[in-house]
Prior knowledge:
It is a single chain. A hairpin with a 4-residue loop joins β4 and β5 (37-43). α1 crosses α8 and α10 packs across α11. It is built from 16 helices and 23 strands. The strands form six sheets. It has a seven-stranded mixed β-sheet with strand order 15-16-17-14-13-19-20, sandwiched between helices. A six-stranded mixed β-sheet has the order 10-9-8-11-12-22, with helices on both faces. A three-stranded mixed β-sheet has the order 1-5-4, covered by helices on one side. The protein has helices at 47-66, 69-85, 87-98, 102-119, 122-125, 161-172, 187-198, 213-221, 234-246, 269-281, 301-313, 333-348, 384-387, 403-412, 426-435, 471-477; strands spanning 10-11, 14-16, 19-21, 27-32, 37-43, 129-135, 138-146, 149-153, 176-180, 206-208, 227-231, 250-254, 259-263, 291-297, 352-355, 374-377, 394-400, 415-416, 418-422, 440-443, 459-460, 463-464, 479-487. With 505 residues, the chain is α/β, with parallel strands linked by helices. The longest helix is centred in the N-terminal third of the chain and has 20 residues, at 47-66. Nicotinamide-adenine-dinucleotide binds at residues 153-158, 162, 180, 182-183, 212-213, 216, 231-233, 236, 254-257, 288, 389, 391, 417, 458, 462.
Amino acid sequence: MNKPADLKLATVPMWINGKAVVPALRMGEVFNPATGSVAKQVPYADAATIDAAVKAAAAALPAWRDAPPLRRARVMQKFLQLLQDHQKELAELVTAEHGKTLPDAMGSVQRGMEVVEFACGIPHLLKGEFSENVGTGVDCHSLRQPVGVCAGITPFNFPVMVPLWMFPVAIACGNTFILKPSEKVPSASVRMAELFKEAGLPDGVLNVVHGDKAAVDAILAHPGISAVSFVGSTPIAKYIYETCAHHGKRVQALGGAKNHAVVLPDADMEFAADAMIGAAYGSAGERCMAISAVVAVGDAADPIVALLKKKAEAIKIGPGTMDGADMGPLVTGAHRDKVKGYVDAGVKEGAKIVSDGRGYVVKGHENGFFIGTTLFDEVKPGMSIYKDEIFGPVLIVLRVKTLDEAIALVNSNPYANGVAIFTESGGAARRFENEIQVGMVGVNVPIPVPVAFYSFGGWKNSLFGDLHVHGAEGVKFYTRTKVVTTRWPHTDTPVRGGFNMPTLG
Ligand code: NAD
C-alpha cells in the first residue's frame, strides 16, 4: 500500500505551524471510490513529524491559553462564517474521497458546523463556581483551565463532522491541537485548517498530520501531548484507551456499533420502514449510528420485512455526485469485499436472504466500489452478521415475541452506541428509555443524534473512557478543574494556625 511519491499524482499536504508541508515520507493512496482509481497520494507521518507538530502546538500554547475566551470565541465566529461560505466545497471533498452522496455530505458538514456554533459560546461555558463562607471568612471558587496540547484521531466515515466534534471545542477551551484524520479521507481536514488560519487562528494552534498506525503510536507515546480524543472501530478504540492510560494521558475513545431498531406491532409501519431504510442504507451503512439490526416484535415482523424489502430494492445507487442518488459506493475495494464476505457468511450460517446486493453493478462505474442493498430475515444472535459490525448496506431482521425479549437482546449486545424504538405507546417507549443499556436512544427517531449542545457517545464497547464528545462533556474533557480556597487574614476574625482539621465552619 505504501510507496514512494508518484510525481504525477496530487499530494495532500500536512499542516504544521500554519503552513502546508509535504515531508519526504512513505506515501499512501487516496481513492475515488466512485471510479475505483487512485486520485491522490498522502504522506504518512513518522515520529519526527509528530514531534515537529507537537513542538509547534506547544510553542503556540501559552499565548492561546492566556487569550481571553471572548477573543477565542471571535476567531471561532469567523471560522464558522468561513465554513458556511465553503460548505459545498467541503462537502465535495467528502464525496470525492468517501463516496457518500453530496446532499448527505452537505448535511454532515452542517452537523459539524453546529459544534463550532456551540464553541462560540465558550466564555459562558467556561464559567466556574463560587461559594462565599465555606468556612468563617473563607471563600471557595473553581475554574476550568485548558489541559495543554491535545490530539484527535478520526475515522474515514465523517471526514468533516468528526474532526469538528473535537478541535473547535478543544481550541475554544484554550488548548492547542494535533489532528490525525483517517488516511483514507485526508483533504477536508487540511482545508479546514487553512480556513481556521484565515479566520485569525494563530499558527501552531491547529496542526494536521496524516498517517497510519506509526503516526498514531507516535502521538500516543509523545510526552508533550496531554489528552487524546479518538473515534473509530472498537478494537482500535480499546488499544488507544489502554495505551493512553499507560502513558498517563487523558483519553476518550469512541468505538464501533451495532445499532438496533425495535419495532412494536402498534408502530406506524410505513413510517418506521422509511425511517429505518434511510438509517440503514444512507451513506452505504458507513455510519456509526446506522441502524443495522431490526428487532421485530410479534406481529410486526411480516409487514415490516415486506416493506423493508420493497424500499431497499428501490434505492438508487450511483456516484455521490449523481442527481437523485440515495447511496454511493463503499470507501475502498477492500472494505467492499469485506462487506460482501459478511453477506456470504450470513447465507452460509442459515439466515434468510430477502434482498441480495452482491453482484450489483453501476453502469459506467464498473470499477467503483459499489455493492447493492442486502436484507436478511430470521437472523439469530449467534450469527456473524449479528455479532459483528459490518459497516455496509446490510440490514438484518431478528424476530422476537415480546418487548421484554427485545430489551434483553439489545442489552446483551456488547456494543451500545445507539438504539431506536418504533411504537405508538408512550408507556412502552418510556419503559424502553429507562431500561435500555445504550448511550443514545431514539423514540420513533432512527438516528437520534448528534445535537451539538448535547454530548455524543455510547456505552460499553462503543466508548472507552468516561466522557462523551462535544456538549458540556466535551468542555469537561478539554479542561481541568482547579478549586481555589481564599482567606484574607487581616479581616475581623483572628486567625491562628491549627494542627487539627477544623470541625466548625
Ligand atoms: P479505524 O478504527 O480503522 O480507524 C480510525 C483511526 O484509527 C484512523 O485515523 C486510523 O488511521 C487509525 N488506525 C487504524 N488502525 C490503527 C492501528 N492498528 N493502530 C492505531 N491506529 C489505527 O476506523 P475506520 O474504519 O476509519 O472507521 C469506521 C469505524 O469507526 C467503525 O467501527 C465505526 O462504527 C466507527 N465510528 C464510531 C463513531 C462513534 O461515534 N462511536 C463515529 C464514527 C465512526
